[in-house]
Write a structure and sequence with these properties.
270 residues; 2 domains; alpha+beta; elongated
Length: 270
Amino acid sequence: MGVWDTYVARLGSSGDPHGDPLRVSRKEHIQSRMRRKITASLSYQKVCINKTMRQVAIIDKSELDEKKLFSMPNETLPHGGIVYWNNSVWLITEKDAHDEFRTECVMRRCNHKLKWIDQDGVLQERWCIVEDGTKYLIGERAGKFVTIGDARVGITIGRDPDTVKIARGQRFLIDDPDATDVVAYQITKVNRFFHAYNGEGVFRFILNEVNRTDNDNLELRIADYYSWFPKTERAKPDIQTDATIEEIVEEAIERAEEEPEVIEETGVWI
């Protein structure tokens, strides 16, 4: 029996190389070794990912707001998931499809919590990455000219059943938490294929600066808030102007003349 015949016989009837006992044994050995090395390294961290504690390895990249993220052997990580680590919130923006031994991802630091009212009138909020969007060169055509807004931003946000409903034309309030002159933006381009695979990943939206409206809630940072929850006007108090002393006396005299018996009985005429 030749070498190839021996290999085929070892695979069995399925012919699947992943079922090769020798390969499986070597894979388990490598994974066990990787687990020991990861937990013993300075890169080993315990982090919260999508509200679940996980053991991972975090490696620096050239960009300070980006990190490489490695799962423990034979584990996976959610593409588009939110990572809470080192007093910051991070978004898993990329995920390697080759995850036979462990999962390798890239996570980026979030800098804004996006808030909006969805189609059912429910308040939604998600951590995201807001960055300069001028490089995307998105404008609005008006006649023969292309008019460009004062500002443009790009948003990277995790894919989920709520963010998949975000659509072109939707408005948001995006600014520093302490800013007073809050800036409003409107989506002009939707890219739902930006690092999204097999039902998970991240979306990219491009937004142009637009004017605020009276329906925007600046305190909560939610655009079009009062379209769903109208402002309740306070009832105007029934304010009556006090009468002058002359008017009070005149009214009392008239009453005394009309109802002398009441004045005589009570002894009060003012």
